[in-house]
Amino acid sequence: MTGKREKLKVVIADDHPLVAFGLHKALDEAGCDVVGTTHDVSDLMDLLAHRECDILIADYSMPGRGSPDGWRFLSIVSREFPDLRILVYTEFHEPFLVGSLEQRGVAGIVSKSDEMSEVLTAVRELERGASYLSATARAALYQYRSNPELQRFGMLTARQMEIAGLMLCGISGREIASLMQRRKSAISSQSIKVRSLLGFDRLSELHRFASNLGLKLDRFGPGDLSHAA
């Protein structure tokens, strides 16, 4: 007798209730088991700690109650739940953000402007261990890789890209060490290495470069993502 295939367990995190409802409905109809839905990062961490989950579908920006947001949020989730596959589902698809997310190792990226079928395709691809970028995300990634000013970031490893992103968000070396669960001295050395690879002697030069090009990764620091969704 052939046993039933176990349903894929999915958690949805989005601070827009209607978006979360639409995702839940589509995933349920596709045969997935939505084991939890949350609109807040703090609640999400508690949910992930107590529920078995294969894939997290998360909005990139979920501000609220002083919780970590954007790039910080991804660093914390990735560190606490290293086996969790993350699909970023966001309205914000700036080329630098999409390219940086892909480079740091996010499993999937789908824009909220894409059809819901893209989300379902992404979920199935992530289920089989592949990565997936929607049509809109692929177009943004192409722009990222084609921009001569941004090609310097292409030489960074996933870990180095994570550090570069945290620095661009205005996060101190001490907080980066805490987020990545590393010694401050180790992060300091790695930060210097990252700046050197990018061609900057000082952090202020990296911030100025990001500001001049309008590079956005977070709602705080040099890249103000205040209009992201």
Automatic annotation (TrEMBL):
Residue span(s) of domain Response regulatory: 9-127
Pfam family for this entry, one: Response_reg
Molecular-function GO terms, alphabetical: DNA binding
Assigned keywords, A-Z: DNA-binding, Phosphoprotein
GO terms of biological process kind: phosphorelay signal transduction system; regulation of DNA-templated transcription
Keyword set includes DNA-binding: yes
Modified residues (4-aspartylphosphate): D59
InterPro entries, alphabetized: CheY-like_superfamily (IPR011006), EvgA-like (IPR051015), NreC/VraR/RcsB-like_REC (IPR058245), Sig_transdc_resp-reg_C-effctor (IPR016032), Sig_transdc_resp-reg_receiver (IPR001789)
Database matches in Gene3D superfamilies: 3.40.50.2300
Protein's UniProt name: Response regulatory domain-containing protein
Protein source organism: Caballeronia zhejiangensis
